[in-house]
Request: fold
Amino acid sequence: MTFFNRLGLALFAALLLAVSAGATPARADWLKAETPNFIIYSDGGERPLREYAMKLEVFDRFLRMRFGVPLDRPVARKLPIYLVRRQGDLAKVAPAIGGSVAGFYHTGEEDIFAVATRGDGEVTLLHEYAHHFFYQHFSTFYPGWLVEGLAEYVMTARIWPDRIQMGAHSEARASWLTNMQWLPLEVLLTNRYAQVERDIHRATYYPVAWLLTHWFMSSPERVVKLEAYLGLIRQGVDPSTAMQQATGLTLDQLRNTLRDHLYGRIELNTYNIDMPDLEIEITRLPPSANDLLLLGQRLKLPMSEEDREVALAEARRLAGRYPDDPLALLVLGHAELHIGDRAAGEAAFTRLLEMDPDNVEALQFMAMARFADADDNPENRPELMNRARGYLATAFGADPGNYLTLLLIGRSRSGAPGYPNANDLAIWERAYIAAPQLSDIRLGAGHAFLAAGDRATALALLEPLANAPHGGGAAEEAQKLIDRANGVVREDGGEDEAEAGAATD
Reply:
Protein backbone atom coordinates (compact mmCIF):
# COMPACT_ATOMS: atom_id res chain seq x y z
CA MET A 1 0.00 0.00 0.00
CA THR A 2 1.47 3.38 -0.99
CA PHE A 3 1.83 6.33 1.32
CA PHE A 4 -0.98 8.13 -0.53
CA ASN A 5 -3.31 5.13 -0.17
CA ARG A 6 -2.55 4.99 3.52
CA LEU A 7 -3.15 8.73 3.76
CA GLY A 8 -6.49 8.36 1.95
CA LEU A 9 -7.64 5.61 4.31
CA ALA A 10 -6.62 7.69 7.30
CA LEU A 11 -8.56 10.68 6.03
CA PHE A 12 -11.58 8.46 5.28
CA ALA A 13 -11.45 7.01 8.81
CA ALA A 14 -11.20 10.50 10.27
CA LEU A 15 -14.22 11.57 8.22
CA LEU A 16 -16.23 8.57 9.45
CA LEU A 17 -15.28 9.40 13.02
CA ALA A 18 -16.41 13.00 12.57
CA VAL A 19 -19.74 11.95 11.04
CA SER A 20 -20.28 9.40 13.80
CA ALA A 21 -19.51 11.99 16.46
CA GLY A 22 -21.93 14.39 14.81
CA ALA A 23 -24.69 11.76 14.80
CA THR A 24 -24.53 11.44 18.59
CA PRO A 25 -24.41 14.93 20.12
CA ALA A 26 -22.25 15.44 23.18
CA ARG A 27 -25.10 17.30 24.85
CA ALA A 28 -28.85 16.84 24.83
CA ASP A 29 -31.17 18.77 22.59
CA TRP A 30 -33.67 18.89 25.47
CA LEU A 31 -34.08 21.96 27.65
CA LYS A 32 -36.16 22.29 30.80
CA ALA A 33 -37.90 25.52 31.81
CA GLU A 34 -39.37 25.91 35.29
CA THR A 35 -41.88 28.65 36.16
CA PRO A 36 -44.26 29.12 39.11
CA ASN A 37 -46.90 26.85 37.53
CA PHE A 38 -45.17 24.72 34.89
CA ILE A 39 -42.20 22.51 34.11
CA ILE A 40 -41.74 22.60 30.34
CA TYR A 41 -39.46 20.28 28.39
CA SER A 42 -38.60 21.21 24.82
CA ASP A 43 -36.21 20.00 22.15
CA GLY A 44 -36.22 23.46 20.54
CA GLY A 45 -34.13 26.53 21.28
CA GLU A 46 -33.98 28.52 24.51
CA ARG A 47 -35.63 31.69 23.20
CA PRO A 48 -38.87 30.06 21.94
CA LEU A 49 -39.01 28.03 25.15
CA ARG A 50 -38.86 31.19 27.26
CA GLU A 51 -41.53 32.83 25.11
CA TYR A 52 -43.81 29.80 25.41
CA ALA A 53 -43.30 29.59 29.17
CA MET A 54 -44.29 33.24 29.49
CA LYS A 55 -47.34 32.64 27.30
CA LEU A 56 -48.56 29.82 29.53
CA GLU A 57 -48.04 31.92 32.66
CA VAL A 58 -50.07 34.76 31.12
CA PHE A 59 -52.84 32.25 30.31
CA ASP A 60 -52.81 30.91 33.87
CA ARG A 61 -52.94 34.43 35.30
CA PHE A 62 -55.93 35.29 33.09
CA LEU A 63 -57.81 32.18 34.25
CA ARG A 64 -57.13 33.16 37.86
CA MET A 65 -58.37 36.69 37.27
CA ARG A 66 -61.44 35.61 35.32
CA PHE A 67 -62.55 32.82 37.65
CA GLY A 68 -61.63 34.26 41.03
CA VAL A 69 -58.56 32.22 41.96
CA PRO A 70 -56.08 34.19 44.15
CA LEU A 71 -53.17 35.34 42.02
CA ASP A 72 -50.66 34.43 44.71
CA ARG A 73 -52.04 30.95 45.44
CA PRO A 74 -49.21 28.48 44.77
CA VAL A 75 -49.97 25.23 42.98
CA ALA A 76 -49.47 22.00 44.88
CA ARG A 77 -47.74 20.53 41.83
CA LYS A 78 -46.36 22.16 38.70
CA LEU A 79 -47.71 20.66 35.48
CA PRO A 80 -45.05 18.97 33.32
CA ILE A 81 -45.42 19.72 29.60
CA TYR A 82 -43.41 18.13 26.79
CA LEU A 83 -43.14 20.15 23.59
CA VAL A 84 -42.06 18.19 20.53
CA ARG A 85 -41.16 19.14 16.97
CA ARG A 86 -43.70 17.14 14.98
CA GLN A 87 -46.71 14.87 15.27
CA GLY A 88 -44.54 11.79 14.77
CA ASP A 89 -42.75 12.62 18.03
CA LEU A 90 -46.07 12.26 19.86
CA ALA A 91 -46.03 8.60 18.85
CA LYS A 92 -42.83 8.18 20.83
CA VAL A 93 -45.00 8.73 23.89
CA ALA A 94 -48.30 7.29 22.65
CA PRO A 95 -47.71 4.79 19.81
CA ALA A 96 -51.41 4.36 19.04
CA ILE A 97 -52.15 8.08 18.76
CA GLY A 98 -54.03 9.22 15.67
CA GLY A 99 -52.26 11.08 12.90
CA SER A 100 -54.48 14.16 13.28
CA VAL A 101 -53.81 14.59 17.01
CA ALA A 102 -51.57 17.55 17.90
CA GLY A 103 -51.35 16.94 21.64
CA PHE A 104 -52.88 15.27 24.67
CA TYR A 105 -53.16 15.44 28.46
CA HIS A 106 -52.73 12.36 30.61
CA THR A 107 -53.79 11.81 34.20
CA GLY A 108 -52.41 8.61 35.67
CA GLU A 109 -50.99 7.27 38.88
CA GLU A 110 -47.39 7.57 37.76
CA ASP A 111 -47.67 11.03 36.23
CA ILE A 112 -49.99 13.85 35.23
CA PHE A 113 -48.57 15.60 32.18
CA ALA A 114 -49.25 17.04 28.72
CA VAL A 115 -47.52 16.53 25.37
CA ALA A 116 -48.01 18.80 22.35
CA THR A 117 -46.40 19.72 19.09
CA ARG A 118 -45.08 23.24 18.88
CA GLY A 119 -47.44 25.40 16.84
CA ASP A 120 -50.35 23.12 15.95
CA GLY A 121 -50.58 21.68 19.45
CA GLU A 122 -50.93 25.02 21.24
CA VAL A 123 -54.73 25.17 20.99
CA THR A 124 -55.03 21.59 22.23
CA LEU A 125 -52.72 22.37 25.12
CA LEU A 126 -54.74 25.41 26.18
CA HIS A 127 -57.93 23.30 26.10
CA GLU A 128 -56.37 20.59 28.24
CA TYR A 129 -54.75 23.06 30.64
CA ALA A 130 -58.17 24.59 31.23
CA HIS A 131 -59.40 21.17 32.42
CA HIS A 132 -56.30 20.84 34.61
CA PHE A 133 -56.82 24.36 36.02
CA PHE A 134 -60.48 23.90 36.94
CA TYR A 135 -59.85 20.54 38.56
CA GLN A 136 -56.88 21.97 40.46
CA HIS A 137 -58.63 25.02 41.88
CA PHE A 138 -62.35 24.16 42.17
CA SER A 139 -63.75 21.42 44.36
CA THR A 140 -67.35 21.77 43.20
CA PHE A 141 -68.66 19.95 40.14
CA TYR A 142 -69.83 21.43 36.85
CA PRO A 143 -72.17 19.79 34.33
CA GLY A 144 -70.37 17.93 31.56
CA TRP A 145 -71.32 20.37 28.79
CA LEU A 146 -69.86 23.31 30.73
CA VAL A 147 -66.65 21.46 31.58
CA GLU A 148 -66.00 21.03 27.86
CA GLY A 149 -67.56 24.33 26.87
CA LEU A 150 -65.27 26.37 29.11
CA ALA A 151 -62.20 24.54 27.80
CA GLU A 152 -63.37 25.17 24.23
CA TYR A 153 -64.04 28.84 25.03
CA VAL A 154 -60.62 29.65 26.47
CA MET A 155 -58.56 27.54 24.05
CA THR A 156 -58.92 30.12 21.27
CA ALA A 157 -57.19 32.78 23.39
CA ARG A 158 -54.76 35.12 21.68
CA ILE A 159 -51.93 35.80 24.07
CA TRP A 160 -49.35 38.57 24.34
CA PRO A 161 -46.94 39.27 27.23
CA ASP A 162 -49.20 42.02 28.64
CA ARG A 163 -52.71 41.16 27.43
CA ILE A 164 -54.99 38.37 26.31
CA GLN A 165 -57.95 38.33 23.92
CA MET A 166 -60.90 36.03 24.49
CA GLY A 167 -63.99 35.09 22.53
CA ALA A 168 -62.58 34.16 19.15
CA HIS A 169 -64.64 31.45 17.50
CA SER A 170 -63.26 28.04 16.69
CA GLU A 171 -63.25 27.52 12.93
CA ALA A 172 -63.67 23.77 13.34
CA ARG A 173 -66.53 24.05 15.84
CA ALA A 174 -68.33 26.71 13.80
CA SER A 175 -68.05 24.55 10.68
CA TRP A 176 -69.77 21.64 12.43
CA LEU A 177 -72.56 23.94 13.59
CA THR A 178 -73.19 25.39 10.15
CA ASN A 179 -73.07 22.08 8.28
CA MET A 180 -74.46 19.43 10.64
CA GLN A 181 -77.63 18.72 12.58
CA TRP A 182 -77.26 19.96 16.15
CA LEU A 183 -77.34 17.83 19.22
CA PRO A 184 -80.66 18.62 20.96
CA LEU A 185 -80.16 20.92 23.94
CA GLU A 186 -82.01 18.57 26.29
CA VAL A 187 -79.49 15.84 25.37
CA LEU A 188 -76.54 18.18 25.89
CA LEU A 189 -77.80 19.35 29.27
CA THR A 190 -78.55 15.91 30.71
CA ASN A 191 -75.71 13.76 29.40
CA ARG A 192 -71.95 13.53 29.52
CA TYR A 193 -70.17 13.24 26.19
CA ALA A 194 -69.62 9.50 26.64
CA GLN A 195 -73.34 8.96 27.29
CA VAL A 196 -74.39 10.40 23.93
CA GLU A 197 -75.03 7.78 21.29
CA ARG A 198 -72.35 7.41 18.64
CA ASP A 199 -74.27 9.08 15.84
CA ILE A 200 -74.46 12.48 14.24
CA HIS A 201 -75.42 14.02 17.58
CA ARG A 202 -72.17 13.12 19.32
CA ALA A 203 -70.22 14.97 16.60
CA THR A 204 -71.80 18.27 17.65
CA TYR A 205 -71.53 17.82 21.44
CA TYR A 206 -68.38 19.94 21.69
CA PRO A 207 -69.53 22.60 19.16
CA VAL A 208 -72.90 23.13 20.86
CA ALA A 209 -71.25 23.14 24.30
CA TRP A 210 -68.80 25.76 23.02
CA LEU A 211 -71.56 27.92 21.54
CA LEU A 212 -73.73 27.81 24.66
CA THR A 213 -70.73 28.67 26.84
CA HIS A 214 -69.69 31.44 24.45
CA TRP A 215 -73.17 32.94 24.60
CA PHE A 216 -73.16 32.94 28.40
CA MET A 217 -69.64 34.34 28.67
CA SER A 218 -70.23 37.14 26.14
CA SER A 219 -71.99 39.50 28.54
CA PRO A 220 -71.92 40.13 32.32
CA GLU A 221 -75.70 39.79 32.49
CA ARG A 222 -75.58 36.29 30.99
CA VAL A 223 -72.75 35.26 33.31
CA VAL A 224 -75.13 36.02 36.18
CA LYS A 225 -77.71 33.76 34.53
CA LEU A 226 -75.11 31.00 34.17
CA GLU A 227 -74.36 31.24 37.88
CA ALA A 228 -78.08 31.04 38.61
CA TYR A 229 -78.33 27.91 36.44
CA LEU A 230 -75.45 26.26 38.30
CA GLY A 231 -77.08 27.09 41.61
CA LEU A 232 -80.31 25.45 40.51
CA ILE A 233 -78.75 22.20 39.33
CA ARG A 234 -76.72 21.95 42.54
CA GLN A 235 -80.05 22.10 44.34
CA GLY A 236 -81.17 19.08 42.33
CA VAL A 237 -83.36 20.86 39.78
CA ASP A 238 -83.65 19.02 36.45
CA PRO A 239 -81.00 20.52 34.11
CA SER A 240 -83.45 21.42 31.32
CA THR A 241 -85.83 23.05 33.80
CA ALA A 242 -82.94 24.87 35.46
CA MET A 243 -81.78 26.26 32.12
CA GLN A 244 -85.24 27.57 31.29
CA GLN A 245 -85.67 29.12 34.74
CA ALA A 246 -82.24 30.77 34.70
CA THR A 247 -82.45 32.20 31.16
CA GLY A 248 -86.18 32.86 30.90
CA LEU A 249 -86.17 31.02 27.57
CA THR A 250 -87.65 27.73 26.48
CA LEU A 251 -85.12 25.34 24.98
CA ASP A 252 -86.51 26.08 21.50
CA GLN A 253 -86.10 29.81 22.11
CA LEU A 254 -82.60 29.27 23.46
CA ARG A 255 -81.69 27.24 20.39
CA ASN A 256 -82.84 30.06 18.10
CA THR A 257 -80.94 32.57 20.24
CA LEU A 258 -77.79 30.50 19.90
CA ARG A 259 -78.20 30.37 16.11
CA ASP A 260 -78.52 34.15 16.04
CA HIS A 261 -75.42 34.41 18.22
CA LEU A 262 -73.47 32.10 15.91
CA TYR A 263 -74.31 34.09 12.77
CA GLY A 264 -74.10 37.48 14.43
CA ARG A 265 -71.07 39.62 15.11
CA ILE A 266 -68.97 38.01 17.81
CA GLU A 267 -67.36 40.58 20.06
CA LEU A 268 -63.84 39.87 21.31
CA ASN A 269 -62.85 40.84 24.82
CA THR A 270 -59.31 42.03 25.54
CA TYR A 271 -57.95 41.87 29.08
CA ASN A 272 -54.81 43.63 30.22
CA ILE A 273 -52.56 41.34 32.22
CA ASP A 274 -50.25 42.90 34.78
CA MET A 275 -47.56 40.25 34.90
CA PRO A 276 -44.98 40.40 37.68
CA ASP A 277 -41.31 39.88 36.92
CA LEU A 278 -41.23 36.20 36.05
CA GLU A 279 -38.30 33.99 36.85
CA ILE A 280 -37.88 31.29 34.22
CA GLU A 281 -35.11 28.88 35.09
CA ILE A 282 -33.64 27.10 32.06
CA THR A 283 -31.46 24.00 32.41
CA ARG A 284 -30.08 21.59 29.83
CA LEU A 285 -30.84 17.91 30.30
CA PRO A 286 -28.13 15.22 30.07
CA PRO A 287 -27.39 13.56 26.70
CA SER A 288 -29.45 10.51 27.71
CA ALA A 289 -32.61 12.63 27.39
CA ASN A 290 -32.35 12.48 23.59
CA ASP A 291 -32.99 8.74 23.68
CA LEU A 292 -34.90 8.20 26.90
CA LEU A 293 -36.98 11.21 27.96
CA LEU A 294 -40.04 10.48 25.80
CA LEU A 295 -39.68 6.73 26.25
CA GLY A 296 -39.87 7.28 30.00
CA GLN A 297 -43.22 9.02 29.53
CA ARG A 298 -44.46 6.25 27.23
CA LEU A 299 -43.97 3.74 30.03
CA LYS A 300 -46.46 5.70 32.15
CA LEU A 301 -49.32 5.23 29.68
CA PRO A 302 -51.48 2.16 29.04
CA MET A 303 -50.12 0.18 26.08
CA SER A 304 -51.02 -2.89 24.09
CA GLU A 305 -49.03 -6.04 24.83
CA GLU A 306 -47.13 -5.61 21.57
CA ASP A 307 -46.25 -2.01 22.38
CA ARG A 308 -45.16 -3.04 25.88
CA GLU A 309 -42.67 -5.52 24.44
CA VAL A 310 -41.35 -2.90 22.01
CA ALA A 311 -40.93 -0.40 24.85
CA LEU A 312 -39.06 -2.96 26.96
CA ALA A 313 -36.69 -3.77 24.10
CA GLU A 314 -36.07 -0.07 23.48
CA ALA A 315 -35.42 0.61 27.15
CA ARG A 316 -32.87 -2.20 27.35
CA ARG A 317 -31.12 -1.13 24.15
CA LEU A 318 -31.06 2.61 24.76
CA ALA A 319 -30.30 2.54 28.48
CA GLY A 320 -27.28 0.39 27.67
CA ARG A 321 -25.72 3.40 25.96
CA TYR A 322 -25.57 5.32 29.25
CA PRO A 323 -24.14 3.18 32.08
CA ASP A 324 -24.91 4.58 35.52
CA ASP A 325 -26.85 7.52 34.06
CA PRO A 326 -29.74 8.35 36.46
CA LEU A 327 -32.34 8.76 33.70
CA ALA A 328 -31.22 5.54 32.02
CA LEU A 329 -31.43 3.61 35.30
CA LEU A 330 -34.87 5.05 36.00
CA VAL A 331 -36.31 4.19 32.58
CA LEU A 332 -34.71 0.75 32.51
CA GLY A 333 -35.89 -0.02 36.04
CA HIS A 334 -39.43 1.08 35.19
CA ALA A 335 -39.56 -1.05 32.05
CA GLU A 336 -38.15 -4.13 33.76
CA LEU A 337 -40.34 -3.80 36.84
CA HIS A 338 -43.63 -3.46 34.99
CA ILE A 339 -42.96 -5.37 31.77
CA GLY A 340 -39.80 -7.47 31.95
CA ASP A 341 -37.73 -8.91 34.79
CA ARG A 342 -38.78 -7.56 38.19
CA ALA A 343 -35.43 -8.46 39.75
CA ALA A 344 -33.57 -6.57 37.02
CA GLY A 345 -35.81 -3.58 37.62
CA GLU A 346 -35.09 -3.60 41.33
CA ALA A 347 -31.36 -3.92 40.59
CA ALA A 348 -31.51 -0.75 38.47
CA PHE A 349 -33.39 1.14 41.19
CA THR A 350 -31.00 -0.14 43.87
CA ARG A 351 -28.06 1.21 41.89
CA LEU A 352 -29.85 4.53 41.40
CA LEU A 353 -30.57 4.80 45.12
CA GLU A 354 -26.92 4.10 45.89
CA MET A 355 -26.09 7.17 43.81
CA ASP A 356 -29.09 9.24 44.97
CA PRO A 357 -30.70 7.90 48.19
CA ASP A 358 -33.54 10.46 47.99
CA ASN A 359 -34.58 9.75 44.40
CA VAL A 360 -38.35 9.92 44.86
CA GLU A 361 -39.31 7.97 41.73
CA ALA A 362 -36.94 5.11 42.50
CA LEU A 363 -38.28 4.92 46.05
CA GLN A 364 -41.85 4.84 44.76
CA PHE A 365 -41.04 2.05 42.32
CA MET A 366 -39.39 0.01 45.06
CA ALA A 367 -42.54 0.43 47.14
CA MET A 368 -44.63 -0.70 44.15
CA ALA A 369 -42.44 -3.79 43.89
CA ARG A 370 -43.39 -4.68 47.46
CA PHE A 371 -47.05 -4.13 46.54
CA ALA A 372 -46.60 -6.63 43.71
CA ASP A 373 -44.93 -9.08 46.11
CA ALA A 374 -47.90 -8.72 48.47
CA ASP A 375 -50.30 -9.58 45.65
CA ASP A 376 -48.26 -12.71 44.93
CA ASN A 377 -47.89 -13.62 48.62
CA PRO A 378 -50.99 -12.39 50.49
CA GLU A 379 -49.99 -14.29 53.62
CA ASN A 380 -46.97 -11.95 53.94
CA ARG A 381 -48.88 -8.78 53.12
CA PRO A 382 -48.48 -6.98 56.51
CA GLU A 383 -44.69 -7.37 56.50
CA LEU A 384 -44.41 -6.41 52.81
CA MET A 385 -46.59 -3.33 53.32
CA ASN A 386 -44.34 -2.28 56.20
CA ARG A 387 -41.34 -2.55 53.89
CA ALA A 388 -43.17 -0.54 51.24
CA ARG A 389 -43.96 2.16 53.80
CA GLY A 390 -40.27 2.33 54.65
CA TYR A 391 -39.47 3.39 51.09
CA LEU A 392 -42.44 5.73 51.06
CA ALA A 393 -41.38 7.38 54.33
CA THR A 394 -38.05 8.28 52.74
CA ALA A 395 -39.81 9.55 49.61
CA PHE A 396 -42.17 11.62 51.78
CA GLY A 397 -39.24 13.17 53.57
CA ALA A 398 -37.64 14.14 50.27
CA ASP A 399 -40.88 15.54 48.76
CA PRO A 400 -43.81 15.80 51.21
CA GLY A 401 -46.26 16.99 48.56
CA ASN A 402 -45.73 14.27 45.96
CA TYR A 403 -49.18 12.93 45.13
CA LEU A 404 -48.04 9.43 44.17
CA THR A 405 -46.19 8.97 47.46
CA LEU A 406 -49.30 10.05 49.35
CA LEU A 407 -51.55 7.79 47.25
CA LEU A 408 -49.30 4.79 47.85
CA ILE A 409 -49.15 5.48 51.59
CA GLY A 410 -52.94 5.62 51.73
CA ARG A 411 -53.26 2.46 49.66
CA SER A 412 -50.72 0.61 51.81
CA ARG A 413 -52.86 1.26 54.87
CA SER A 414 -56.17 0.16 53.33
CA GLY A 415 -57.53 -2.88 55.15
CA ALA A 416 -55.10 -2.56 58.05
CA PRO A 417 -56.43 -2.71 61.63
CA GLY A 418 -57.96 0.60 62.64
CA TYR A 419 -58.12 1.90 59.08
CA PRO A 420 -58.97 4.68 58.45
CA ASN A 421 -57.62 6.61 61.40
CA ALA A 422 -57.10 10.38 61.57
CA ASN A 423 -53.65 10.13 60.00
CA ASP A 424 -55.00 8.04 57.11
CA LEU A 425 -57.65 10.67 56.38
CA ALA A 426 -55.01 13.42 56.54
CA ILE A 427 -52.88 11.53 54.00
CA TRP A 428 -55.81 11.14 51.61
CA GLU A 429 -56.69 14.81 52.01
CA ARG A 430 -53.11 15.85 51.16
CA ALA A 431 -53.13 13.53 48.15
CA TYR A 432 -56.35 15.13 46.90
CA ILE A 433 -54.96 18.65 47.32
CA ALA A 434 -51.87 17.65 45.34
CA ALA A 435 -53.72 15.96 42.47
CA PRO A 436 -57.52 16.45 42.44
CA GLN A 437 -57.46 15.45 38.74
CA LEU A 438 -56.62 11.84 39.57
CA SER A 439 -59.64 9.57 39.83
CA ASP A 440 -57.83 6.95 41.95
CA ILE A 441 -57.18 9.56 44.61
CA ARG A 442 -60.81 10.69 44.65
CA LEU A 443 -62.02 7.09 44.84
CA GLY A 444 -59.50 6.10 47.53
CA ALA A 445 -60.29 9.17 49.58
CA GLY A 446 -64.03 8.71 49.03
CA HIS A 447 -63.86 5.14 50.33
CA ALA A 448 -61.84 6.26 53.36
CA PHE A 449 -64.10 9.16 54.34
CA LEU A 450 -67.23 7.05 53.88
CA ALA A 451 -65.71 4.37 56.11
CA ALA A 452 -64.95 7.06 58.69
CA GLY A 453 -68.57 8.26 58.58
CA ASP A 454 -67.80 11.61 56.92
CA ARG A 455 -70.44 11.48 54.20
CA ALA A 456 -70.26 15.20 53.29
CA THR A 457 -66.54 15.13 52.53
CA ALA A 458 -66.88 11.88 50.59
CA LEU A 459 -69.64 13.30 48.39
CA ALA A 460 -67.68 16.52 47.76
CA LEU A 461 -64.79 14.39 46.51
CA LEU A 462 -66.85 11.97 44.44
CA GLU A 463 -69.47 14.15 42.73
CA PRO A 464 -67.04 15.92 40.34
CA LEU A 465 -65.67 12.54 39.29
CA ALA A 466 -69.13 11.05 38.81
CA ASN A 467 -69.95 13.95 36.49
CA ALA A 468 -66.62 14.05 34.63
CA PRO A 469 -67.30 14.09 30.85
CA HIS A 470 -64.62 11.44 30.22
CA GLY A 471 -64.75 9.70 33.59
CA GLY A 472 -65.40 6.24 32.18
CA GLY A 473 -65.29 3.38 34.67
CA ALA A 474 -64.02 5.66 37.43
CA ALA A 475 -67.10 7.87 37.04
CA GLU A 476 -69.32 4.79 37.32
CA GLU A 477 -67.50 3.64 40.44
CA ALA A 478 -67.85 7.12 41.97
CA GLN A 479 -71.58 7.08 41.25
CA LYS A 480 -71.90 3.70 42.98
CA LEU A 481 -70.24 5.11 46.08
CA ILE A 482 -72.50 8.18 45.97
CA ASP A 483 -75.56 5.94 45.67
CA ARG A 484 -74.33 3.87 48.61
CA ALA A 485 -73.82 7.01 50.69
CA ASN A 486 -77.31 8.25 49.78
CA GLY A 487 -78.92 4.88 50.40
CA VAL A 488 -80.13 4.59 46.79
CA VAL A 489 -81.03 0.99 45.95
CA ARG A 490 -82.01 -0.44 42.57
CA GLU A 491 -84.87 -2.88 42.16
CA ASP A 492 -82.32 -5.69 41.78
CA GLY A 493 -80.88 -4.83 45.18
CA GLY A 494 -77.84 -2.87 43.99
CA GLU A 495 -77.19 0.84 43.79
CA ASP A 496 -78.95 2.90 41.13
CA GLU A 497 -76.16 3.74 38.67
CA ALA A 498 -78.08 5.87 36.22
CA GLU A 499 -80.24 8.65 37.48
CA ALA A 500 -78.06 10.64 39.91
CA GLY A 501 -75.22 11.09 37.44
CA ALA A 502 -77.47 12.01 34.53
CA ALA A 503 -79.54 14.45 36.56
CA THR A 504 -76.56 16.65 37.41
CA ASP A 505 -74.75 16.46 34.10
Summary: The first helix runs from residue 3 to 23. The first strand starts at residue 31 and ends at 34. Residues 142-269 form one domain. The chain has 24 helices and nine strands.
